[in-house]
Automatic annotation (TrEMBL):
It comes from the Bacteria. CDD domains: PRTases_typeI. Residues 38-224 form the Orotate phosphoribosyltransferase-like domain. This is Phosphoribosyltransferase. It comes from Kitasatospora griseola. Residues 269-404 form the TRSP domain.
């Protein structure tokens, strides 16, 4: 089925959040209506690729209800469990990709009740990487695998690889080849919110699976394709160059408070070093108390609250947002995270990235030359209804640096111009015990 993404929506409805790009550049999505419900379009500040597929359910660029974000991953995990069957599900391990899919992969693992690991761009002193692989279009190793248990990926059960989108399959295929060379297994399952591969890409993955002697299945929420005009890079660059810069928020700085959350000792804050079913049960037991502490910090009159995570730190802030929503059912709670991806912002209802807060990097992994990070759709822009009265910023302790607090382009001062109250919650980053 092919859907024309240039067609107008119902009278009075908000336009599709990719309509502005489609109208000006001719970029079109082909697929069922479930595809355009999942993603919008924006323009990248990137000489190699003009467009960005902006997920509405990932919790990265677009603030979304936490139950929607977690639920999207849970649903995919349950579909994988149905595909594998109980015996194979019990042996499965899930691997997610940093930075964008760390919470999605963790949520898929929740749906399977399986051990979880995500790649990371943050090296840990004293912990040797189990491996590393390169992202497509990258000239340096951008993903490290740092499991506390070196046997986590050494089994022969199904390996479930999770990314937000499956565009060509190159990164996933590179990962499978590298891991299969070290620890061959019979079955892989690739999971994504959207599958946009061409027929040639699909044939390439099938050929690679046959070469490895392994079965590779794919599970996605929606599939389709992207049509790109031949001159899209030049036209996108011209649009960006001609656009005026968005004004910096000029409002007085809101209140800032620091919240000491009762995070349990020894509980990993995510899957950087592995997250087991036992960790999962412990987190579920403690979430009500964490939600109560957050509710006390934001107050009973909270109306519209954003819980904002930090780059790879997505899953813990997501679950905190969900716990807060359960404590404050009448409030509107949203979740998103900061990112290193430079995207052009344009304050138009038919464009996916309406506002941008650029700030100085306060957690600078090795090998990253960029000193700027971004929070999208956090500032309200021209629409007062989009304003959050409270932002809960959740970081881990390595990211709680002077660069977070001080300077004209530090994140905390920038956030305080976009909201009435910022609550800072710092989680202890899990540090594996040094090997014997």
């Amino acid at each position: 089925m092919t859907v024309d993404t240039t067609a107008p929506g119902p009278v009075g409805a908000d336009p599709w959040s990719g309509q502005w790009v489609t109208d000006r550049l001719g970029v079109r999505l082909t697929g069922g209506p479930e595809l355009t419900a999942l993603i919008g379009l924006a323009l990248r500040r990137n000489p190699k690729r003009a467009h960005l597929l902006v997920s509405q359910v990932l919790g990265k660029h677009v603030p979304q209800r936490p139950e929607v974000v977690h639920g999207a991953g849970l649903d995919l995990g349950r579909r994988v469990a149905a595909l594998l069957g109980p015996a194979e599900t019990a042996r499965a391990v899930v691997l997610g990709y940093a930075e964008t899919a760390t919470a999605l992969g963790h949520s898929v693992a929740d749906g399977l009740d399986a051990p979880y690991l995500h790649s990371t761009r943050r090296p840990v002193p004293g912990l040797a990487p189990l491996g590393g692989f390169e992202e497509e279009h990258s000239h340096a190793t951008s993903h490290l695998l740092l499991p506390e248990d070196p046997e986590l990926l050494a089994g022969d059960g199904p390996l479930v690889l999770v990314d937000d989108e499956f565009s060509t399959g190159t990164t996933v295929l590179n990962t499978i080849r590298a891991l299969h060379a070290a620890h061959p297994r019979e079955r892989y399952v690739v999971v994504a919110l959207v599958d946009l591969r061409t027929p040639a890409d699909r044939s390439r993955l099938a050929a690679a699976a046959a070469e490895l002697g392994a079965r590779v299945d794919l599970v996605a929420t929606a599939d389709g394709g992207v049509h790109l005009p031949a001159d899209v890079l030049d036209r996108a660059r011209a649009l960006i160059d001609a656009a005026p810069e968005q004004p910096r928020p000029a409002a007085p700085q809101g209140e800032l408070t620091r919240l000491p959350l009762p995070w349990p000792d020894g509980l990993p804050d995510g899957g950087r070093h592995g997250f087991t079913p036992a960790h999962r049960r412990r987190l579920e037991e403690t979430l009500p108390a964490l939600g109560a502490a957050l509710a006390d910090a934001v107050g009973p009159r909270a109306r519209r609250v954003l819980v904002l995570g930090c780059e790879e730190l997505m899953y813990a802030p997501l679950r905190l947002a969900d716990a807060l929503q359960r404590r404050l059912p009448d409030a509107e709670i949203r979740f998103s995270t900061t990112t290193r991806s430079p995207v052009f912002a344009h304050d138009h209802p038919g464009y996916a990235i309406r506002t941008r807060l650029a700030f100085t990097a306060h957690d600078d992994p090795a090998g990253d030359d960029s000193t700027e990070r971004y929070a999208y759709n956090v500032a309200p822009g021209s629409d007062p209804a989009r304003r959050f009265d409270i932002v809960v910023l959740v970081v881990d302790d390595p990211a709680d640096t002077p660069a977070l607090h001080h300077g004209p382009d530090a994140l905390l001062p920038r956030l305080r111009t976009a909201t009435d109250h910022v609550v800072l919650a710092v989680l202890p980053s899990y540090r594996p015990a040094p090997p014997a």
